[in-house]
Write the structure tokens for this entry.
Amino acid sequence: MADIAHVDGPTDEDGPVDDNHDNGHGDEHGGHGDHESTGTDNRKLGMWVFLSSEFMFFGALISNYLLFKGRDFTGFDRITLIYPIELYDIPFTSISSFVLLMSSLTMVLAHDALASGDQNRTRVWLAATGMLGMVFVGGQFFEFSEFIHEGMTISSNPAASAFYMLTGFHGAHVFIGILMLLSLWGISRRQGGLTEDQGLNLELVGLYWHFVDIIWIVIFTIVYLIP
Amino acid sequence: MAAHTEHHLPHPTPKQYVQIALFLAVLTAIEVLLYYVEQGVDAIGTSVTAPMLILLALIKFFIVVAWYMHLRFEKAIMTKFFVAGAILALVLYAATLIALGAIAIGA
């Protein structure tokens, strides 16, 4: 993501101003000397490596679901024969997906606003992203409660178990993202703006948030749309 | 050298971010439409819709990574790490699923 560079710290007005918005390499000149042994900020590189490792994590959960979703568990002990695919509410999940997709837009707008030095607009978009995330998690909570009401719990059968593990862990990631967004919003509100270092934090949280979105793009297609 | 020149690409404007979001929303609508077409028309099976759905998901995936995560504006080392993780996971789990019979080859 674009680096937030040359930010002098929060002010009483609109706060720090970025004068290096468009070239995307502000950290090369922004005083991060201690964090740039690779020519880029090590924290940002670390976040990309972390996100890369998350492919393995979600890949395992998606594979687990694909392995069990079509299996017939008739005849096994302590198995309830109700499968996730019988309960999916595609219109509802489509709206949830749309909400999460739009939260990526508000996240990138928050980042853009900070890069422009507009602290108020940054807070508005951060709050909007957090709220859209809450709508998504709320929708997932509703979906889970509906499924449990229909009789499919995490212990019903391996397919149900794999479904709850996959979507539950994704929901947990979204929830952690919301906490980080609200923390940034709170810090910005208390200080009157985000400093340069906190601007980088916003960038890292943004990367995490978009990653959670792309994982959902995959889950929505593989789990919900392809029978 | 290529990575260096990529670094000077201008980032999208807020208006362009909104246009990208609208495009992503349209792709999502097409995905849902495909799902219902497959459900409602017997002649169209998953062998037709599944590849299209995967293609649409991949397009959305790459748009978000390139434009919202700004990977196309980042240094090559970021792309290498990210793509390496994605490819490693894809190959590992595809091989596992094929070995366990969850994905049929040539069926």
In short: The two ends of chain B are 45 Å apart (CA to CA). Confidence is low (pLDDT under 50) at residues 1-6 of chain B.
